[in-house]
Amino acid sequence: MSIIVAIVIPNNGFLIYGDRKRLNMKTRIRIEDIRKVYNITNTTAIGLTGHSEWCISVKDYLISLGNIKPSEMISIIKEFSLKKLAADSTITLGGIYDDGKLFTFTYKTTPPTAEFFQSEKNAQLSVASNPQIFVDQFSAFFKNELMVGIEANQAIINTIKFASEISPETISSEFDFIGIPYEPQEVAS
After folding, report:
1. What is the CATH number of domain 2-181?
2. Where are the domains of the chain?
3. Dihedral angle computed from the Cα positions of residues 134, 111, 60 and 100, in that order, rounded to the nearest 10 degrees
């Protein structure tokens, strides 16, 4: 199991965090050595849960394309997912969209669903976990942290630690994160 937590903070930026635990399918040994969040460009980042080889192939392919627009990345993720579907995997993409606004995009392979969010006024949270059964619980924990006044970065860290207590055999309290600051941009027509 994995956890990826991403949030768009209007007029501030995009944050994405991922735990570091993985299961070696051959040896069945769990190790805390895998990175699950990556920069794709200087304005986009991706978080991956699920089948690690499939997730890494999606990430590597997107990086190999160079500086492409987020809308193109979304199309590629949807196509890639259909061609090489990996059950119970989730891709979370976010940062600054083609129009210069902050966004998140989440693609789940089981069942295939895509969610796109963009707003200049409201924060948007995306929590991905494999398996999906814990997503609502982790999301509720995070939202409660914000409601009691905990800052978003710390709320995400607390959520990952909470998730690692719920499922210590599959989620690590160790994590990686990427922040993409929001700087209003002029968009070329």
Report:
1. 3.60.20.10
2. 2-181
3. -80
